[in-house]
Design a protein that fits this description.
This protein is an alpha/beta fold and about 220 residues long.
């Protein structure tokens, strides 16, 4: 099974909210990957510091051009660039591993990839349970007013439809599907793998401190 998969780690240099965030997170993901699979792992980055660190770990480096390392760059564009520059075969699967999930283990990755392989879909993303239902959310307007994001007439929460929150904890793609992906890295036939519990997606130092605290307690 594993001979048909390659792993892509996106790790651009800049991060407005948390400076050099990916430099602080890279070791969590590298250390989770067994040595015998690291030759199947690629990291797409414009950061020379990260490039040097991963080369010592037997992981392949893809030089990401500046135009694909901007705030508005989509992950779909990064995936397309990876497929093009490495001439990735159409019969391979790509497993996308964001660095922002330091709780992720190799066992998590394999379990989710096996689920994907046993499905008939060409793409998979993960899903968390929502903490706030979108039917209770509003667009903020001027003069202290607001407008429902989702138009509805329901009052009872029991009548609200079940909803999921996108998580990029692990994402899997057949190469041929990438061309039609939405900027959120999913398409009409994407399957959503429900995580057993919500995973920390590190966006700031407080998030990372909480993960480190949990690890120190364990």
């Amino acid at each position: 099974m594993m001979e048909k998969v390659i792993f892509l780690i996106p790790a651009r240099k800049n991060s407005k909210g948390f400076k050099f965030k990916n430099r602080k997170l890279i070791d969590f993901t590298i250390n989770s990957i067994p040595m015998e699979y690291r030759n199947q792992v690629y990291i797409s980055t414009d950061d020379d510091v990260i490039k040097e660190r991963v080369r010592e770990s037997n992981i392949n480096v893809i030089d990401r051009p500046d135009e694909l390392a901007q705030d508005k760059t989509t992950m779909t564009d990064v995936l397309k660039h990876f497929i093009k520059v490495k001439d990735i075969s159409a019969d391979l699967d790509i497993v996308l591993l964001y660095l922002t999930y330091p709780e992720r283990t190799w066992e998590d990755i394999i379990k989710i990839y096996e689920f994907f392989r046993n499905s008939t879909s060409g793409s998979l993303v993960c899903a968390d349970e929502i903490k706030q239902h979108p039917y209770l959310c509003f667009y903020e307007k001027n003069d202290l007013r607001a407008e429902l994001i989702v138009k509805h007439d329901f009052y009872r929460r029991q009548d609200y439809p079940k909803c999921l929150k996108l998580s990029m904890f692990v994402a899997c793609y057949k190469v041929g599907v990438v061309e039609k992906l939405h900027p959120l890295c999913m398409e009409d036939d994407t399957i959503f793998y429900k995580l057993e519990q919500n995973k920390v997606d590190v966006d700031n130092k407080t998030d990372l401190d909480s993960v480190n605290k949990e690890r120190s307690v364990v």
